[in-house]
Amino acid sequence: MMAGKNNLDKYAKMFEKEMAEIDPLQQIVLKGHLIIEAALDNILSTIFFHAEHVFRGRFTFMQKVQMARAFGLRKDKNTIWNVILSINEVRNEVAHNLAGDKRETKLKQLRRLVLMEMTEEMRATLEKGGTKLADLSSEVIVAHSCNLCIGFLGAYEDDISALRRIIDSVDHGLNPHQERVLRKTPEEARGKKS
Prior knowledge:
single chain; mainly alpha; 9 helices; flat
């Protein structure tokens, strides 16, 4: 019985320590990843006419990225997909490990990828306060990475939505007496009320 109490105390102390420390990087990574995944879900629910067959399955983030990427007419080779996947790697490391060297390795990889994506205007804006890009905090790099990805996915969703409207219009012309297949939100496709 005594060993159980020692373990309980050990984990209670660990819990108290972790809850007492606010990790801004962790919060940015987790929230940014959630928004990116929501954008991917919206893209997938627009692509598929019967999205319930997609959302009732258990697809990983990586699988969602690859499905959205596979549908990209001219966006499939865009290097921002690598940033999205890198954010996912950082998210997995942050969510599943309390600390470690792998976290820093994943953050360095993300920093390298996002710096390659930056335009001169973006670089100038970030360096405006006199801070060099190499000295930007991980929090700033992750936030900027998430914003880049969200911007890309938002534009992609607009393109997919326009394509969906064209397909719906063609379907209406070919099948004027058939009921329309309406786009479902991800929540509707999962069978949940939005």
